[in-house]
Amino acid sequence: MSLIGGFPVILSAPSGGGKTTIAKALLARRPDLGYSVSCTTRSPRPGEVEGRDYYFISRADFISEREQGAFAESAVVHGNLYGTLRREVERVVAEGKHVVMDIDVQGASQFVRAFPNSVTIFILPPSAEVLLDRLRARKTESPAQLAARLQSALQELQQVDEYEYVVVNDDLERAVASVGSIIDAETVSRERVKNLQKQVGLLIERLEMEIENNTP
User: Fold this and answer.
1) Are 35 and 92 spatial neighbours (Cβ–Cβ below 8 Å)?
2) Is the pLDDT of residue 193 over 80?
3) Which terminus of the chain is less hemmed in, N or C, by CB atoms within 10 Å?
């Protein structure tokens, strides 16, 4: 499906890469951006709010929604189900905004098939040590859970070539500015193409009319 006007902006990164922080910073600063609230079957973390951070639903409800084609993408992450609702994306675009989402690698490829006009950006940590420090600093996971996240991070980093843009998150402000510049450039480019197509269409229409008037 292609959306007129706004377009989805997908931020992907390994856990601890900073994609959620960057997304929140952009949303706080730019009125032209909106957020598509995802669904998950995991329990809320401290400070997370239903309908703002996620829709927290049961596994049975998630599977039912998925079978009805409600999701643009869905994935199993660390044993929990996550998914982006098509209607959430369409809601934000209907407001005339670009849709900013932080989606993992396996979900991003599905989403692009549903919305081909998406812009894909991979947020890269500046080094392995920084990534490890960020993950360890959480102190909310068991050694087994941390090992699972590290394995996922390895698999996600191997898919970086699938993305149109890569931003290194060595400085948060600089990373936010870089992502913002990408959105601006894509907006200008797509608006230019849209205007060009309209202009060419008018020229063709006028020439066809003139040809018809001058044909014996």
Assistant:
1) yes
2) no
3) C
The highest-level CATH class for domain 8-213 is alpha beta
What pLDDT does residue 5 have?
66
DSSP tally for the chain: helices H, then strands E? 7, 9
Spatial CA neighbour of 125 closest among 10, 14, 24: 14
The alpha carbon dihedral of 32, 1, 119, 50 has a sign of: positive
Q: Which two tokens stand for residue 179?
A: 């992502």
Q: Rounded mean pLDDT of 136-153?
A: 75
CA distance linking residue 209 with residue 46, whole number of Å = 66
Domain boundaries, the chain: 8-213
The Cα–Cα gap between 102 and 18 comes to 10
Is the separation of the CB atoms in 30 and 118 below 8 Å? no
Q: What is the pLDDT of residues 148-172, one digit of tens each?
A: 777 877 888 888 999 999 999 999 9
**Dist. CA 101–CA 92, nearest whole Å:** 11
